[in-house]
Amino acid sequence: MNIGFDAKRAYHNKTGLGHFSRTLVSLLSGHYPEHQYYLFNPKPSPAFKINGSNIHEILPQGIAGKLFRSAWRSSWVKKDLKRLKIDLYHGLSHEIPVGIQNTGVKSVVTIHDLIHERHPEQYNLIDVKIYHKKFRYACHHADKIMAISQQTKKDIIEFYRIPEEKVVVCYQSCDPVFAIQASDEEKEKVRIKYDLPREFFLYIGAIVERKNLLNICKAFFLLRNELNIPLVVAGDGTRYKQQVKDYIRQHNLGDRIIFLSERQKPGDSGFIAMTDLPAVYQSAIALLYPSFFEGFGAPVMEALWSRLPVITSNVSCLPEVGGPAAYYVDPNNAGEIAEGMKKVYTDKELVKTMQEKGWQHAQHFSPDKYVVSVMDLYKSIW
Structure pTM? Predict the structure, then answer.
């Protein structure tokens, strides 16, 4: 089978959608070497290389494709699909080429979340309209929809009126590097590289309202006289980040909240390198992830693989991902977040239990199970 992918984010995205895309293609290439994988990339990227003898990067050819790369990706790429005899095309993040249903090429689209439908107030109006049009079109015209959680499947059915049998849940895994225990030397090297404290709680993700960093900071304020442990924030933002920083300044928490994006040296990307992330997770006390809403919550899975205790929300898809291993809180309640932090820091038996249950639960999301579920989805329409 010749399988094509929308590879824009695989080559250009440093955060969740990029990690998802690169991990899936690499797993497919390794587990199913009998197939050929064509990555349709709108422009060259110095950031990422995706290697494999059966992986082929396809760039737009001709002046028009190079000048109008968005048009090539969203429509004109169909000519390349036919030229390369692509059997199945996978839109890895919410989109498929317009009109692909008329080409004879089967298609799958991955929907990660419909947050713009549930919480449109967190986006500008133009973006909400664009996302609604693209996502809805993809859901209605793809042969199958890959949802990354039961929560996302429920939302697809509810908002876009899609038949339940068209939507298949494939729980994603994460890069296998998270399952490898970093040595003390590796942890120390990463600590020095990112100027990390000896002890810290960890927040990973964009600094946006639904991720709930403000209530985490309120929990730190509640614990100001009980727990002198900082928070390392790995992520960045704009308007909401400023709101969080205003709270930090007003409540004298400047020495408790460390924004890694503001400690970057000249030439750094502003993100933690994927090769360093496992050591960062494994050096932390706990991951704080009390998000109001997620499509999956990849950092929770990465933390479980890393044997890091997780404090997360009791809403959305997060109980799906955290299972019996996580410590659950009401994301609206800073007091519950603070109580969870205190328990995880002081109760060593609780930590050991969370680590062991986390590792066991993570096996349900193993790379082998994940890649088999995706290939089974492909075979169901090919």
Answer: 0.85
